[in-house]
What does this fold into?
Amino acid sequence: MELVIFSLLNGLVYGLLLFMLSSGLTLIFSMMGVLNFAHASVFMLGAYFSYQVGRWIGFWPALALAPALCGVAGALTERYGLRTVHRHGHVSELLFTFGLAFLIEEFVIMAWGRNPIENRVPDLLDFPLFTLYTTSFPAYKAFMMVISAGMFAFLYWVLRRTRTGLIIQAALTHPNMAAALGHNVPRVFMLVFAAGSALAGLAGVIGGFALLTAPNMANALGPIVFVVVVVGGLGSLSGALLASLLIGIVQTFSVALDISLLDAARGVGLDIGRQNPLYEVWSVKIAQVAPMIPYFLLVLMLIVRPKGLMGTRET
It folds into this structure.
């Protein structure tokens, strides 16, 4: 029972962290149609910014300043880079963001080195929230869950219930009409890209303490984020949340299961010997294939439902 409860809690924490990272990417794609390959690199940049600002003035100011710095960087990227290549089509946009990801990684290595940095949880949140059986649940993980849930509620409210959200959606679907009504459509796109980058930066601030803050953290999480976005449905914020929780919980439980199909078969009375041609496959532990499960879900989703769980665009 202890394993089930804490695997579920850790799966929720991991899933909500994936949502924090994928929400900015979903926002940028749903409003601009741009798949930003540098998004995970901005997440990494947020983690390093929070570390540096936290050393100077503390964690709580860094919680606001690091995402703001990432948002400014995103606005400058859209205004002076992405907007220029946009006229050449989506392939040029993908190549631009792909190259930008490498530039950000090299910048991080030049500024902070190749070794992981010591990013400690702030003292105010460094205590066990509760203890069940023999395992404690850290307060910082609960803080991560609250921030993630608040982010979803805020984004949903802005996009569905405010005038700003209506203007953003109008600028996407009917840019000429929005411009005729006096709205600066290029500026709207720049602000959307900046907001998506700021969300990635906020995820970096929060996730930098839960994960190892190192120059390869973007490469570790980047592919999973695209899996989340595709499985949830390109452009769907609710789909990103659902897919994040699904992948987070499934992968966490998979890591905790140190059993194989061979063990399960023996549990129901089936005896599979070494002479069986699939014996090696049956003997692989579920924990060993846990990293493959999100990609299996991606392939399955593309076959069964290319639009994703709640998407409106074809992938």
User: Anything to note?
Assistant: The two ends are 39 Å apart (CA to CA). The longest helix spans residues 2-32.
